[in-house]
Amino acid sequence: MKGNRRAFTIVEVVIVLVIVAVLAAILIPFFSDLIAKANESAEQMNLRNLNQQLIAAEDPPDRAEEVLDYLEKGGWLEEAAFSSGEILGWNEEKGSFLLFDRSFRVLAGDEVYAPRSVWLFVASWRVAEEALASGLQFHYCYIGEGAGDGCSLRFSYGANLIARENTVISGLSVFYEGEEEGAFRIGLSFQDGEISVDMPRASLSLEGDFAAEVASLEICARELSLSGAVRCALSLRETDLAVRAEAYCREIEGDALSFVENSGSVFLLNSAVPYAGGKPVVYAGEEKWEICAADADSLAEVFRALSLQDRTLRAEFSFQSDIALTKALAPSVSVIQPSDFALNGYTFTYDGSLRFIGDVSFSGGTLRLHAAAPTSDPAVFCAGALTMENVSLEIGNRNGIQMYGVYGISSLSSVRMECIGAEYALSAVGCSIRMEDCAVRSSGDALRLLDDGDLWMRRTELSGDACGLTLKDSQARCDGKFLITGGTDGIRAEGSSRTAVYLLAGETDDSLVKGRQNGISFGTLTGTMELTVYFTLVNGGVYGIEGSGERIAEWKVGDGASVRGGLAAYSWEESEISGDNLLLCV
């Protein structure tokens, strides 16, 4: 029986294969067409849903700039709603969406649109390049995160290119080949690569963050407007530079650079480029910012920028004229960098508060810090060491300088300060302060030294309508000729631990501590008091020195000292004085 079985012949197998191939040739295109039509139908349905949602929205976007935010919030760009390679577009003129195939023919939506009225949403720079090659003229092109290494975008018209943040690209070239002058806006955030823009007949606006990792940014344009952060090497060729906001550049090089407009500030690192025309604010150097402050607008830009920068770099301001800054231009000034202000004999006026988180110094000029309306805010707040030399301060309708001694020693030399409408002129918490050849006048307290503060002053006047010097758990040492006067007490000591006052004038210094009520008062002190007086007159309208003798831990009124009071020199009996370190010499 086995011998009677017969296998397929080669001819039969070939015939079967031919039949299968013929059927596949007939059916595969048919089913492929069905699948494509189904996908197209789904994409059209999605587009209809998108447009219907747009119509039904309570606040539909009516400008192209609002469309991207609308799409992202609705998840249309993230959820691959159009996943078959179609490209979503926005018809600005009609206010509706449309769908392109990869040849940039309209698949769905209104096929009638004006040239340059379309905003494209593409996955990569490569697709943008294909759109231009197809002849499509768009107004905006939003580019996703897809790479486009080595892309060349060639335009015959002005356009806007908006890229997703932190686009990583190894090479991009943009050309403008139109006959008429064009205008481009590029808003992107690059992290890598080389970018070149060649459009001598077009103006270019850069509105992005070009990070330091970008190898180079080479531009040839009729005019370049910077309003983003360019933290890379910027090479300009035959280009006028307009700065309309903050722009940070690692370095700039080019021929005959000039500013055609300077309503903003340019900040340079590691560069000393001489600019022709304009008055830019220039940063230079590897370890510091060097800032030429020439006018209020540019200074306001600097203050806004400094709040974002690396606090390890020192900011050095050099004033070139009187500058009157207002809260309208700079609502707040908060600088986190260590800062030096060389006023160069000019006056800096500001009606807001200056806040410094690091060390700060002022030299050689006038600070006029008047608030428009009374406020308890200090004119200057410093959380580091404050240094002032040859400075005049005029402060009104507010408190003066408030210091918090995080570290370092604050130093005031040849400072003249008048503070009207304030509780205090100087307030220092936990600070070490050195004052020499200073004069402080206040409608409140002249100086408050609080919480383990330490004051050394020489040839200095403190005059307050309340107190000349208020000490809380702190110590003060006064040398040379000094004058401390107060509308109530000359010196007031308070607190719950140790307070010490050392009045160590010389024989010919003629120093004075005087108060309308008491020269020195420690009547509210709950801690201990140490007092040493040499060659100083302590005078009070009631008592020269007022307080409780039981609080005196160390006491010496020595050579050349005199204590006087309208009622009595002291407010206690000698028998009240006690203490382990008692040195009595009255």
Short description:
With 586 residues, this protein is mostly beta strands. Helices cover 13% and strands 49% of the residues.
Averaged pLDDT: 77
Distance between the termini: 145 Å
Number of strands: 48
Number of continuous helical runs:
4
Largest sheet: 20 strands, parallel
Rg estimate, integer Å: 38 Å
What overall form do the CA principal axes indicate? elongated
Class computed from helices, strands and strand pairing? mainly beta
Helix proportion: 10-25%
Q: Can you tell me the residue ranges where pLDDT is under 50 for at least 5 consecutive residues?
A: 243-251, 254-286, 578-586
Strand content: over 45%
Task: Describe the 3D structure.
- The chain is mainly beta and 586 residues long.
- Helices cover 13% and strands 49% of the residues.
- It starts with 9 loop residues before the first helix and ends in a 16-residue tail after the last strand.
List the helices and strands and how they pair.
Elements (H helix, E strand, L loop, with lengths): L9 H47 L7 H11 L12 E5 L4 E5 L5 E3 L9 E7 H9 L4 E9 L4 E5 L4 E4 L3 E10 L5 E6 L1 E18 L2 E2 L3 E13 L2 E8 L3 E4 L2 E9 L4 E4 L2 E4 L19 E6 L2 H11 L7 E6 L3 E3 L7 E3 L3 E4 L4 E4 L3 E3 L3 E11 L7 E5 L3 E11 L2 E6 L4 E12 L3 E6 L2 E5 L2 E4 L2 E6 L3 E5 L2 E4 L2 E6 L2 E5 L3 E4 L2 E6 L3 E7 L6 E5 L2 E4 L6 E7 L1 E5 L2 E4 L5 E6 L4 E4 L2 E3 L16
Parallel strand pairs: 4-5, 5-7, 6-8, 7-9, 8-10, 9-10, 10-11, 10-12, 11-13, 12-13, 12-14, 13-15, 14-16, 15-17, 18-19, 19-22, 20-23, 21-24, 22-25, 23-25, 24-26, 25-27, 26-28, 27-29, 28-30, 29-31, 29-32, 30-33, 31-34, 32-35, 33-36, 34-37, 35-38, 36-39, 37-40, 38-41, 39-42, 40-43, 41-44, 42-45, ...
Antiparallel strand pairs: 1-2, 1-4, 2-3
